[in-house]
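Morning run. Coffee first, then this:
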Amino acid sequence: MSNRPDVNPELKLVFDEPVQRKKAPKHLADFSPAERKVWAKELGFQPFRAAQVATHYFSHLSTNSEDWTDIPAAERSAIAKALTPKLIELVTTRTTDNGMTRKDLWKLHDGVLVESVLMRYTDRVTVCISSQAGCGMNCPFCATGQAGLTRNLTAGEITEQIVAAARACANGELPGGEARLSNIVFMGMGEPLANYNAVVRTLHNITDSNPDGLGISARSVTVSTVGLVNGIEKLMDEGINCTLAVSLHTPDDELRDSLVPINSRFKVREVLAAADAYEKKTGRRYSIEYALIRDINDQSWRADLLGRLLKSRNAHVNLIPLNPTPGSKWTASRREDEEEFVRILENYGVPVTVRDTRGREIDGACGQLAAAEKSK
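And here it is:
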């Protein structure tokens, strides 16, 4: 472990909580199981009510207090409002891929907008969730990054996106009928490790067994980061062992300094060393996320450099054809350049896949739907 402090003076955004105009209401999902009982008592309820509500919320995905028959009818509404206040409200939903991909736009208590995307495949259902409103990483090809950071989300606000997705699956809202939410990826709006405490609390909410959490395997959860080395180091000691995804986007520091500005603080080799340490500690192979941008980072020599960097590492490359944002100069690579990039990596023995580009028709890139709503 590094002795590096959590917050470095040049980049206060790494773990700082942005200023909020009005704090979100506290929610059951903001607390650990033990803390929930203490909190319930502080609110004037019997502590065991917290465990009962957690069972309804995490095991049954229910926020309708009328169904909570193990709680006296006269108390249900007050307990529900206190322990599970409404944190997110659906603004609009867009679908594509014959309904198999669904993007939801949520309004938070203070009017801030965030997005989640629910995707059904033949063998799984995945939700991509937001951990911040906006993002402070300032990556120029990302709609969210260009919007800037509004604020961190609470663990309750993040967890609500997941529970809403799980409920949609259980209610058969996607084609194919009832399903179980199986995979969660922190790849929506925001840099998860810049909202560390809320994200870790959410990870426990996901992976803790019913009734304390959703009981989803950590192997089915992916946390993406642009490379906050101190965040990776903290995460590896949490004992959660989810999959780490590093948004690298180029193997050379010169270009990465401009594509991913945090690289001015954490260089490529330092980021990869932290990912290696995470893999060694957790036993989980990590992913390298690489958005292919035409004539920017898709040259064969960069593929060669990436292959040489990764050939001896337990990493998998996930190539992402860029989903361009309106008016942006950045666009996806040519098919032939993409294929050559893949061929070079495979020649080095590096596992590589090209991500299925879902959601182009529904403002699928992070931040696009929120930006479109704001512009109305």
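The CA atoms of residues 122 and 371 lie 31 Å apart. Good start to the day.
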